[in-house]
Structure formats: structure tokens, C-alpha cells
Design brief:
The structure holds three protein chains of three kinds. By secondary structure, chain B is α/β, with parallel strands linked by helices. Chain B has helices at about 20-30, 35-40, 70-75, 100-110, 125-135, 140-150, 170-180, 200-215, 225-230, 250-255, 260-265, 270-275, 275-280, 305-310, 330-340, and strands at about 5-15, 40-50, 55-60, 85-90, 90, 110, 185-190, 220-225, 235-240, 245-250, 295, 315-320, 325-330. In chain B, strands 6-7-8-3-9-10 form a six-stranded mixed β-sheet, with helices on both faces. In chain B, strands 2-1-4-5 form a four-stranded antiparallel β-sheet, sandwiched between helices. In chain B, helix 14 links the parallel strand 11 (about 295) and strand 12 (about 315-320). The model of chain B has no long low-confidence stretch (mean pLDDT about 90). Chain C folds into two domains: about 25-110 and about 250-315, Periplasmic binding protein-like II (D-Maltodextrin-Binding Protein, domain 2, 3-Layer(aba) Sandwich), CATH 3.40.190.10; about 110-215, D-Maltodextrin-Binding Protein, domain 2 (3-Layer(aba) Sandwich). Chain C is built from 14 helices and ten strands. Chain C is globular. Chain C starts with a helix and ends with a helix. Classes of the chains: A mainly alpha, B alpha/beta, C alpha/beta. Chains A and C meet through helix 13, helix 16, helix 18, helix 19 and helix 23 of A and helix 1, strand 2, helix 3 and helix 8 of C.
């Protein structure tokens, strides 16, 4: 009976849903059509209803900071962090701080990296890890890269530790988890500018603030993966631990944490990648290193050198990513009993040996110690010429000229004006209808409410311009990325190179795309959309490839045996099954687009990003937060609807 | 068995649902498993009373979802029961605090799991030594003991392997060795051989019987395989929907199933393999049949040739010591061997 | 490990220093902020190396050029060497009111920020640099975004240059499009350079761009006091902002109030420092054209200009 009841109930909901959606859509349409006679407060939230949220937030922040004395706490923390940062800074690039023994010679660092790579993933990884550091030294960016690394070596472990503790708490106390998850969701969608300003105010400028912003930015995945990993430990292993008479602490230390190793390490991997992405962006608040250099190079239009720095960042990212992933899959190897100590720890000894050897060599050979200016192999100006030649190539410029004209005149500006023309009510109702269609009334309410709040903040027009850029870019990315992804998934030989290209494109520091975009399309919305487009295409392609590839072989064989042509197989089997995964890619594309649209403020936009950029200079913490929330809420509305849809599809398909 | 039972379950209830304690009185009054489910609760263990004597091997048999795994977890308090009581070695285990419970497990209990429950990051040696490590034995001692049990289960030379480097059968040997490391009095085995291939399973059952003969422990063994139960058990408890349908020796269950449900299981069983001479033996009433006696421990099948060839009405039955304990009607035995005429 | 050697040497010299440290500067590092344009970076290095020469410890931090005044005020950074009147005057004054930092003198260099074009633009619009001539050939500067009007590429909106107001006040046939960053401005010039497309945009001096792309400022009606506040001032009697920007804005030095006590010697030198436009342009050129790293550029500049800075430290 119970089962019967629930099915009839969900049937009822299914019947109710379309009518609700139609109702909402009709209302939205009505609001749009009746705009001339619509009362003004339905078109835009009137000014008297826009409360001074930013001032309240500012007041709240000031209260917490000064009256509650949080600033003293944070300054104490920052003193502790600074101490750690000084140590790594001294070791890696010889900053004049305790313990005054650095900088380590580049050859020693590279040697240790190579041995670590070998230990984790054999010869290939050794070449990658060692090669990256050799490249960094030879190209003459050693100090810059080490400035960046010195922050990551502090930020990543701290983020892992904090994430681990929060994850443990979330796993242990379901109530805490319920409170934490929405906060994490917001954190993951807040634009990075919103991390930067509080960091500066509470933790001073320079590396400390950058380090804090990086830590905060990198924590969420660690929390999620910790909670997930601990939940996934098999019941029997837990029971085996209990039956062995383990105390709670022993359970955690010997049973739960080791059994959740894979998830924890995936968390570590994500922390490292996010740290690296963020550490470059923290150049905006005074983090020295690769990011700062990149910014100053871009400000003097040195494309070649910027490109080289981009390559360095990609190499470092790929090395850290591959090594930490190798660590995830690496299983302990057993030694026969009676293996001597030095054989069990062979690699450790080799690593120490290589390190010491390089230290000694560096005392006598200057090249092994550091590479002087003029000894490096930077090809900055040559690359510069090549890039400029490409960007000013006649065929390319005439194409881009035409594209610029076409997109501006016929696509972007009309679309943007249309969105701006629509009454807020109409947009909110449409969003609610989409939510309702996918996930029922509740989803509809949530999605609508998120946009409703945005309207209430009074930043509606700028928010809509943000959404307009995001949608335009993602649609463009879908038009190009999906066919490419499908094509790649069907030809195995293509898939890997394309995935590699995706990886590279994604790890390239995001703001490196801005300059070529401007040089190709000028300061206008086409550049903005183009810059977002590059970033948003990647997840679309990747998830399309993954989705199609992960269709079970039996289903394909069944289709083959049913006499399906390749085309039929694609349309009838592969695409429908890949759709939920592709939707996840679509969602990621939108999240990336929201990230990038804020950065695109550097091209010149009239959206939230521009306002956010302004607050950074003016120390307006309250406004910064309100704007950040606008971005986060809109992103979360999309996220909620799409992920809900994907989950429903998955359930319906039983995968 | 004059001793008090080692494990004693009295009217044990385990309900899953929103408010099990609150619903318990109603559950007790309910007529059936279905009725309780209607109310939104699952009665995983329903009013079970079983005793397990010292040195006895009780097999709990039932299909999946019958509550057998839950019951065994109630006995070790891996799961807290909703009603009734469980007494282990004279202690009411629901009354133990966390420290006492840990102590009980560290000293007296061992458990083997269906999917082995091995810690993937530890070598065979470290897995086996794990319970010893938990109770704080020093490194040297626990290594000695672990090596000893590893040898016992026949895994010598694999001490430094990791679980994933072993076959399923070998992994379960590790599981068995671990459960034996602390020399427990009570040994729980939760479907230990279900995850193994049939051939390996047979081999492991033999191995298990060997260990059992050597160690003489009190054993609670869970299985969904009736043949396995018949092969290993002193007594079998058959469960359905959380309740025990019948708890008796294999011979009795085969010969006189208490319910239709139990009868269904016994239908296809070749009874001659299960029924022993001693069960068929009737009191002597002063008259001892002539001629050579049959062994009380022999199954009817083992006696088949003799039964067919012998022409006596009544066969004397002798125990291990050669003492005549009763007389068995040849016709009864033949009926079991060939089926009733 | 070159430091092991310097370490010993350093310890010795520290002992020596400790001997006569009675009135001398604190050994804490003087923190000099660095921003993202080259002249400022090199100048900071130049001054930093002067301080180091005097025995002070110096550290550089990269900071936002607007937020830096808040940091100077709190003492997180010690000074700021390039306070541009036009760009940072507002932030500087705000911080000045809040207290904690003060004006430590001005460079002799003057700053100018206004509409500017690279020289090749003159070919398409020969009447330049006069603003009326520019307005005549507005169509040359048209882009798809601006329709048939000319495009003026302004700096980021938050630089508050009131370009739109000026266009309105002078009735110009232009649309203002705001770039989001200085880099965006340079990228546009870089793109225009290839085909020598005419372009008019926001620029300033002293700046590296002058060295890379020779160009001129557009000559608007000359700035008079009150032009931005009083409609009556300037050619259009009904509008404000009907004139160019001041052609000689200040370039000041700001210092943290505590600097004077903590590093008295360094502070004394700081108040004497003054660079000229030519010197600043030279510093920028060393990095932007000659591709030196800022530290090397500073060292080179110091070596070549001893007569300029030696008097300051005596």
C-alpha cells in the first residue's frame, strides 16, 4: 500500500508540474507583453524598496572586525601564517627571514621533484616533474615560480587540514553538515574578488592575505571529499574494527581515515589545483610570484613573456595534478620478509642523495645553483613577434572584423537589449518555471527566489548583463563544443589529444586570454564572450566525451545487433544515456562562465564584475559582499536546476 | 550441557524506523511482519529467544532479509537491540558502557565477515595483528601471535602481502586469522564463505571444520546455504521475517520440520546424508539385538551397504566408546535412504 | 647555498652595525609597495636600493594601487612613491583625512592624463591635435559598437575621468567605451598598430607607452580652475567638464606617520627625493623597451645617475 501511495502521489505531482510550468510561463509572458501598462514596481524593484544592504553588511563587518575584535584574532592568525610563509619563502627563494639557509639551489629542488615523481608514477612522472622544474629554471622564472610555490606549500596543507577537520565534523554531526553544505555551495560560486577583499582587510596585504584567500578558496572540495570518503567506508570494515575492540580514536585513526584514503587524496588533488588557480589570481591583492609578473607583463603588453609564464603555470599545474593523481591510485607494494632497511627505503635514500649531491655541486658550479639573467633561454620577444604576426594576419583580422560586426549588430546587442527590456518579474517567473519544470514546485521556488533576491538588491541591470554574457558564451560554447565532443568521442584517436588540449586550455591562467581577445575583437562584448567561451567550452567537451565513452559496451553491442547504423546508435543510444553527464558538463560550463565573466571586467564590461573590481580598490567590503552574493545566487539557481535535472534523468535511466 | 549458556537471547527485538522504542509495544502486539511494515517499521529481529551453549556451534540459516545478520550483530552489540535482552557470559551486554564493551570484544569475541572486512592499507600480518594492536599488546608479542595464526590458516609466506594481492579464499583466511588472533571464546562468522567460488567454498568448509575441531570454541555461524548449515551445525536456527521458525539439530529439522517454510527447505535434501544412526535409535527396553553394532555417529548413507545387506529387523547402535546406546529399526533407516515405500 | 657565505659576512656586519645603532634606523624592513606599471616598480627599486645602501632592510610587496593608501595608513607598508593627482588623489586624500599617513613631498615631474592618440592616427586625421579637428573626423574612429559615431576608448570607469560629460559638454560626435584595465588599452593600441588604424584613447604621462608608441595628447580647451564645477567656466556656458584635464598634475610621495621615528635616516632621504619626467620615463624604458628586470633596471639607473641621487643621502 505504501508503495502504491507514493507512486500515485508522484503521479499527481507529475500531472501538476506541467500545468504549474505553463501557468508560470504564461504569467511571465503576460508580464512581458503588458510591460507598458505594468505597474513600475513589477518592472524593476523601485528604489525605495532597495534597502541599503551594502551599508548593513559594511556595518556588520565593521562590528565583527572592530567591536568584536575579530581583527585581533585574524592578525594573530596572520602572524602565524606569516611565520610559516617566511620559512618556505626563505628556503625556496631566499627571502631574508629565519631560518636563513635558503635559497635551495634549483638543481636540488628539481632533483627531489624528479625522484618524487619517480616514486609516484615511474619514469614518465619523473621526467614530467623534473622537467617542469628544469624548464622553470632555464626560462629564467625560478624566483617567481618559487614565490608562488612558497605560498602553495603553506596554503595547500593548511587547506587540507582545515578541510579534513570540517569534513570530519560534518560526517560526525549531521546537523553541522546540513548547516555547512549551503555555505560551501555559496563559497564555491562566490566570485574570487569576494575572497580577496576580506582577506586584505583582515590579513594585511601581500602573501599572507593571498595565502588566506587561497586557503579559503581551496577548502570546500576537501570538506566534501572527506565527508564522502568517510561515509563510503564499508560497513564490514567498520564492524571489523569495532569487533577488534577499537576505541573511537583508534577507529578514526586506523580504520576510517586509511579506508577513505582514495577520496581524501582526491580531495588533496583538488585542493592543490584550486590553490594554484587562486594563487595566480591573488596577484590582485599583492601576492608576488608568477601571477604578479603576469599582470605587470600584461600591463606592458609583453605577450611573449606572458605566454611563457602561462606555460610555466600550466606545467606546474599538470605536474602537481598528475603527481597527486598518481598518488591516489598508487597502492603500497609489499617487500618480502627480511628485505633490508635500505632496500625498503631505496627511493627515499636516492632522493636524499640527489639532494645533497646537488647542494654540494651548487657550491662550486654557479649554473647548478641559480641561473643568472642572460643565461636563461627566454624567447619572450620572439614569441611576442609570432603572436603579433598571428593576431595581425590579414585573414584572421578580416574574419574577426566580420565576426565582431556580425555578433555585435545581430546577436549580442539585440539579445542584451531584449534581456534588459524585460521586466524583472518576467525573468524571475521564467526562471521559476524552469525550476518547476525540472524539479517541481520546490525547485521552482528556490530558483525564482534566488533571482528575486538579486532583484531586491537593486543590482538587477548589472546582474542581467552578467547573465547575458554567460548565456551568450555558453550557447556559443555548446554550438561548437558539443559537436566537437561528439566527434572526438566517436574516434578514439581524437579523444585523447582533445582532452589534453582541454586540460591545457583550462589550466592556462584565465586572464591570459583577455589580451588576445581584445587584440582580436577590441574592447567590446565580443571579446568578453570570446574569453568566456574559451573557458566554457572545455567542460562541455570533456563531459560530452566522458558521457559518450561511459555508455556500457553491452548496450552498444545490443544496438549493433539490432542493426543500428552509427548515426542511429548515436541518436538512440549514446546521446540519451550520455545526457545526464553532459548536463553536468553544461552546468560546469555555466559555473566557469560565471567565474570568467567577472575576470572579463578587465576587458571592460558594465556588469557586476566591473562593480566588484571597483570595490576592490575602494575597500567597500559591504558592497563587495552584496555583489558577490548576486553572482553566487544566480550561479546557484542555474546549478540547482541543471543538477536536479541531471539527477532526475539519471534516476529515470537507472544509472 | 550443565553450564549456563554462553550467549542467551531473551525475547530480542530489533526494529528499524523513526521511533523504534515507542513502537515496540505495538510491535509486540502485532500479528505479523507485514503488519509492522504497514506501520512504517521493519522488524529485523522479532521476539527471538535462543541459547548457545559452551563449545556449541549454532548455525543461523535464512534467506537474505530474514534478519540473521542483524541477529548476530545484536549478540555482539554491533547493533543496539530495541527490546529483550542479550546475555553474554553472564553479562547483560546492553548494560555495558563503551569501555566495558570494548574490553569484552578485545578479550572474548572474534568475527569473520562475508566480504572479509580487511583493511586495505595493511599487510596480511598487520591485518591479523590489528586486534592485538588495538588492545595495546607490544609489537614483538603481537607479531609472534599473528605469525602463529597465519600459519594456522595456512598463509605462511604471505605475511607481507596486501589484501588486494590475494585471492578471495586467501583473503577470507586472513579474516579468519584476524578473528582468531585474540583467542576469542566466542566466534561469530557472518556468511564467511558466500562470496567464494563453490570449489573454494567446499575447501574452506573443510578447513573450518578442522579449525573447529582443534579450537573447540563457541560458534555462531550465519549462512543462507542450507547444505552448508547441515554440514557444519550442531544446531540450526532457521529464520524468516526476523523470527526463528525452528531451532534444532539438523537430523530433527530434516525429520520433523516444524513449519511449512522449514519443510520447503528440507524437501530437496538427501536426508540419508544428514540423519545419524543415533537419532533413529530407540530405547533398548532391556533387549539388545544380536550381531555387530553400527556407529551412532554414522549417517544413514554411510550405512547404506550394510542396511541393504543386513537382514536383521533391529540393529544395535553403539557410541564412540562401543557402548550400545539403542536399537535402530532397519526399515526406518531404509525409508530414509530410499524414501518411504 | 651562496647564503652560507653571506650569512657569516652578514653576522659580522650586523655586529658592526649594532655598535653604532644608537640613533640609527630600525632593522625591521622598510616595506615598499609595488604596483603593476613599470615606472613605479623601477622607482621603488631605485629608492629601495638607496635605502639598502644606507644599511636599511627593505622589502617589496605587490599591492593594489588604490588599496595601498589604507595599508600605508595602518603601517602595513611604509610609503608610496607615486601618488598621481588624477588617478589616486581621491584615495590619497581620503586616507589623509583618516590619518596615519602624510604628504612627504612631491616629485618635480608633472603628470598629465587625457585623450591621446598614437602618431599614425594623424595620417587619417591631419588636423590633430586640436579637438575640433578630431571631432571633424569622428567617423574615422567608428566601430560596430558605436555605429557612425567615433569611439573614444576610456580607462576603467572607476578612474572617474568624466569623458562622457566632456563629450556631451563639447557636443562631440563620439561615444565613450570604457576599457576594464590599462592592459586593455595597450592591447587595443597593439592591435591597431599592425594596420595603423586610427585610434583615440585615454593615456597618461609619464608612461612606458610613450616610448613604445610615439603619440600626442589631444588639445582640448585649456583647463581652468572651476571648469569641472562651474558651468560658466569654459567654452560651453551651460555645462561643466567643458575643458581638458590639467596638463600638470602633481606626483607626490606618501609616507606612514610612524616612518619618521622608526627609520629617521631613511625618512630624511625620502623627503629629499624628487624625480623628473625624463628620469621616470628612462626608468620605464629600461624595463619596457630594453627588457631588463626591475632590480637590474634600478641598479643600472642608479649607476648611470649617481649625480642625481648621491646628494640626497649626504
Amino acid at each position: 500500500m505504501a508503495i502504491l501511495d507514493s507512486t500515485s502521489e508522484s503521479d499527481a505531482r507529475r500531472i501538476a508540474r506541467p500545468s504549474g510550468v505553463i501557468l508560470l510561463l504564461c504569467l511571465a509572458l503576460a508580464a512581458a507583453l503588458l510591460k507598458p501598462v505594468l505597474p513600475a514596481f513589477l518592472i524593476r524593484v523601485p528604489e525605495w524598496a532597495v534597502l541599503p544592504y551594502d551599508q548593513w553588511m559594511q556595518w556588520l563587518f565593521d562590528f565583527i572586525k572592530d567591536d568584536l575584535g575579530l581583527i585581533h584574532v585574524t592578525r594573530t592568525i596572520s602572524a602565524g601564517l606569516e611565520w610559516l610563509l617566511d620559512i618556505t619563502a626563505n628556503l625556496l627563494y631566499g627571502k631574508n627571514r629565519w631560518p636563513h639557509i635558503g635559497p635551495l639551489p634549483w638543481s636540488a629542488v628539481a632533483a627531489v621533484a624528479a625522484v618524487t615523481g619517480y616514486a609516484l608514477g615511474g619514469t614518465r612522472m619523473a621526467l614530467l616533474a623534473g622537467g617542469t622544474f628544469v624548464w622553470v629554471a632555464l626560462i629564467g622564472q625560478w624566483d617567481l615560480a618559487m614565490q608562488t610555490m612558497s605560498v602553495i606549500t603553506v596554503a595547500a596543507p593548511v587547506a587540507v587540514l582545515v578541510g579534513l577537520i570540517l569534513g570530519l565534523a560534518a560526517w560526525k554531526f549531521p546537523r553541522f553538515e546540513r548547516a555547512l553544505m549551503p555555505i560551501l555551495a555559496i563559497f564555491q560560486t562566490l566570485p574570487f574578488f569576494t575572497y580577496l577583499l576580506p582577506a586584505v582587510i583582515f590579513f594585511k596585504v601581500g602573501p599572507t592575505a593571498g595565502c588566506v584567500a587561497t586557503i579559503v578558496y581551496a577548502i570546500p572540495p576537501m570538506v566534501l571529499m572527506t565527508a564522502l570518503g568517510l561515509k563510503q567506508v564499508s560497513d564490514e570494515v567498520v564492524e571489523a574494527g569495532q569487533m577488534s575492540g577499537s576505541t573511537r580514536w583508534q577507529m578514526l585513526r586506523h580504520v576510517y581515515l586509511p579506508s577513505a584514503r582514495t577520496e581524501l587524496l582526491i580531495g588533496v588533488n583538488q585542493v592543490i589545483m584550486l590553490s594554484l588557480a587562486m594563487v595566480v589570481l591573488t596577484a590582485f591583492i599583492g601576492m608576488p610570484g608568477l601571477g604578479a609578473k603576469l599582470l605587470s607583463l600584461m600591463n606592458s603588453l609583453k605577450l611573449g613573456r606572458s605566454f611563457e609564464i602561462g606555460v610555466t603555470i600550466v606545467l606546474v599545474a599538470v605536474t602537481l595534478d598528475r603527481c597527486s593523481k598518481a598518488w591516489v591510485v598508487k597502492q603500497p607494494q609489499h617487500f618480502e620478509r627480511g628485505t633490508p632497511w635500505w632496500q625498503r627505503h631505496r627511493l627515499l635514500l636516492i632522493g636524499i642523495g640527489a639532494f645533497v649531491a646537488c647542494l654540494i655541486a651548487a657550491q662550486f658550479i654557479q649554473l647548478a645553483d641559480h641561473i643568472k639573467r642572460g643565461q636563461d633561454l627566454s624567447m619572450g620577444s620572439e614569441i611576442d613577434d609570432v603572436i603579433r604576426a598571428i593576431l595581425s594576419n590579414g585573414v584572421i583580422t578580416s574574419t574577426t572584423e566580420w565576426l565582431r560586426w556580425f555578433l555585435i549588430t545581430w546577436v549580442l546587442i539585440p539579445f542584451r537589449n531584449a534581456l534588459l527590456w524585460l521586466p524583472s518579474t518576467s525573468v524571475i517567473l521564467t526562471v521559476a518555471a524552469a525550476g518547476c519544470f525540472v524539479g517541481g514546485w520546490r525547485s521552482g521556488m528556490i530558483a525564482g527566489a534566488f533571482f528575486g533576491i538579486v532583484a531586491l538588491t537593486g543590482w538587477w541591470d548589472r546582474s542581467i548583463i552578467t547573465v547575458y554574457a554567460v548565456i551568450s558564451a555558453v550557447v556559443l560554447a555548446a554550438l561548437i563544443g558539443l559537436p566537437l565532443g561528439i566527434l572526438a568521442a566517436r574516434r578514439k584517436r581524437w579523444a585523447d589529444p582533445i582532452l589534453l588540449a582541454c586540460d591545457t586550455a583550462q589550466t592556462f591562467p584565465s586572464f591570459i586570454y583577455l589580451i588576445p581577445a581584445i587584440m582580436l575583437f577590441g574592447v567590446n562584448d565580443v571579446s568578453v564572450v570570446f574569453a568566456i567561451f574559451i573557458f566554457a567550452t572545455v567542460p562541455l567537451m570533456r563531459y560530452t566525451i566522458e558521457g559518450i565513452r561511459s555508455v556500457p559496451d553491452e548496450l552498444l553491442e545490443a544496438a549493433d545487433m539490432s542493426g543500428a547504423t552509427r548515426h542511429q546508435k548515436l541518436l538512440a543510444v549514446q546521446l540519451p544515456l550520455a545526457l545526464p553527464t553532459m548536463a553536468v558538463g553544461f552546468n560546469q560550463a555555466i559555473m566557469f562562465a560565471f567565474f570568467m565573466v567577472i575576470i572579463a571586467a578587465f576587458i571592460g564590461t558594465q556588469d557586476l564584475g566591473q562593480e566588484l573590481q571597483k570595490t576592490l580598490a575602494g575597500n567597500q567590503l559591504g558592497k563587495n559582499f552584496v555583489l558577490g552574493m548576486c553572482v553566487a545566487l544566480m550561479a546557484l539557481a542555474f546549478d540547482h536546476v541543471i543538477m536536479r535535472w541531471s539527477a532526475n534523468r539519471r534516476k529515470a535511466l537507472g544509472v | 550441557m550443565a553450564d549456563a549458556p554462553v550467549i542467551s537471547c531473551r525475547n530480542v527485538w530489533k526494529l528499524f524506523g523513526t521511533d523504534p522504542e515507542g513502537y515496540l509495544p505495538a510491535a509486540k502486539a502485532a500479528q505479523s511482519f507485514e503488519e509492522i511494515r504497514q506501520a512504517g517499521y521493519i522488524a529485523a529481529v522479532r521476539d527471538v529467544s535462543i541459547d548457545v551453549g559452551r563449545g556449541e556451534m549454532l548455525v543461523i540459516m535464512g534467506l537474505s532479509g530474514s534478519g540473521k545478520s542483524t541477529l548476530v550483530r545484536c549478540m555482539s552489540r554491533l547493533i543496539d537491540i530495541t527490546g529483550g535482552e542479550v546475555i553474554v557470559d553472564g553479562q547483560k551486554i546492553m548494560k555495558l558502557d563503551e569501555r566495558e564493551l570494548i574490553e569484552l570484544r578485545r578479550r572474548k569475541m572474534g568475527m569473520v565477515f562475508q566480504s572479509f572486512g580487511l583493511l586495505p592499507h595493511r599487510t596480511v600480518l598487520d591485518n591479523v595483528a590489528f586486534p592485538l594492536e588495538m588492545r595495546g599488546q607490544d609489537r614483538h608479542e603481537r607479531r609472534e601471535r599473528a605469525l602463529e595464526v597465519i600459519k594456522l590458516v595456512g598463509l605462511e609466506g604471505r605475511e607481507e602481502y596486501f589484501p588486494r594481492e590475494l585471492s578471495g579464499g586467501q583473503q577470507q583466511r586472513v579474516g579468519i586469522a584476524r578473528s582468531l588472533a585474540i583467542e576469542p571464546d566466542i566466534w561469530f562468522l557472518d556468511e564467511p564463505f558466500s562470496a567464494l567460488d563453490p570449489l573454494i567454498r567446499r575447501e574452506m568448509q573443510d578447513e573450518f571444520l578442522r579449525l573447529r575441531g582443534m579450537l573447540g570454541k563457541t560458534i555462531v555461524f550465519i549462512t543462507h546455504d542450507f547444505d552448508e548449515a547441515l554440514r557444519l551445525a550442531d544446531r540450526i536456527a532457521i529464520m524468516k521475517d526476523g523470527a526463528v521458525e525452528q531451532c534444532d539439530t539438523p537430523d530433527k529439522i530434516v525429520l520433523s520440520p516444524a513449519t511449512d517454510y522449514v519443510a520447503k527447505f528440507t524437501e530437496d535434501v538427501e536426508k540419508s546424508r544428514v540423519v545419524h544412526a543415533k537419532v533413529l535409535a530407540q530405547p533398548l527396553n532391556g533387549h539388545t539385538p544380536d550381531g555387530p553394532a553400527v556407529a551412532a555417529d554414522a549417517t544413514v548413507l554411510q550405512l547404506a551397504r550394510q542396511l541393504v545387506n543386513d537382514d536383521r529387523e533391529l540393529l544395535p547402535v553403539a557410541d564412540n566408546a562401543g557402548k550400545i546406546v539403542g536399537a535402530m529399526k532397519r526399515q526406518d533407516a531404509l525409508d530414509i535412504l530410499l524414501g518411504p515405500a | 647555498m651562496k647564503n652560507i657565505r653571506t650569512y657569516l659576512g652578514g653576522a659580522v656586519s650586523l655586529l658592526v652595525l649594532a655598535g653604532n645603532a644608537a640613533q640609527a634606523d630600525s632593522t625591521d624592513p622598510i616595506i615598499i609597495p609595488i604596483h603593476n606599471w613599470s615606472s613605479q616598480i623601477v622607482m621603488s627599486n631605485v629608492v629601495g636600493q638607496i635605502f639598502e645602501n644606507m644599511g636599511d632592510n627593505v622589502e617589496y610587496v605587490t599591492t593594489d594601487s588604490q588599496a595601498v593608501y589604507e595599508s600605508v595608513r595602518l603601517g602595513d607598508v611604509t610609503l608610496e612613491l607615486e601618488v598621481w593627482e588624477g588617478a589616486f588623489g581621491a584615495s590619497f586624500n581620503t586616507a589623509l583625512e583618516k590619518g596615519g599617513l602624510h604628504d612627504a613631498g612631491a616629485h618635480s615631474a608633472v603628470t598629465r592624463e587625457d585623450w591621446w592618440y598614437p602618431l599614425w592616427t594623424k595620417d587619417a586625421c591631419p588636423g590633430l591635435p586640436d579637438w575640433k579637428a578630431l571631432n571633424e573626423c569622428a567617423a574615422v574612429f567608428a566601430t560596430p559598437e558605436t555605429g557612425d559615431k567615433g569611439r573614444f576608448l576610456g580607462g576603467p570607469v572607476d578612474w572617474l575621468k568624466h569623458d562622457q560629460e566632456r563629450v556631451d559638454a563639447l557636443g562631440m560626435n563620439f561615444v565613450v567605451v570604457n576599457a576594464g584595465s590599462a592592459a586593455a588599452l595597450w592591447a587595443e593600441i597593439g592591435a591597431a598598430e599592425a594596420e595603423k588604424k586610427p585610434i583615440v584613447l585615454f593615456n597618461w604621462t609619464p608612461n612606458f607607452a610613450e616610448a613604445v608608441w610615439p603619440g600626442e595628447f589631444v588639445e582640448f580647451p585649456e583647463w581652468e580652475a572651476g571648469c569641472n564645477e562651474d558651468p560658466a567656466v569654459g567654452p560651453n556656458p551651460d555645462a561643466t567638464y567643458d575643458c581638458g584635464n590639467p596638463a600638470n598634475g602633481y606626483l607626490k610621495i606618501a609616507a606612514w606617520d610612524g616612518m619618521k621615528e622608526k627609520w629617521p635616516d631613511a625618512y630624511e632621504v625620502l623627503t629629499r627625493i624628487s624625480f623628473t619626467n625624463a628620469q621616470i620615463a628612462e626608468m620605464a624604458k629600461l624595463v619596457d623597451v630594453d627588457e631588463l628586470e626591475p632590480e637590474d633596471a634600478a641598479a643600472e639607473w642608479l649607476a648611470a645617475n649617481e649625480d642625481v641621487w648621491k646628494p640626497w643621502i649626504e
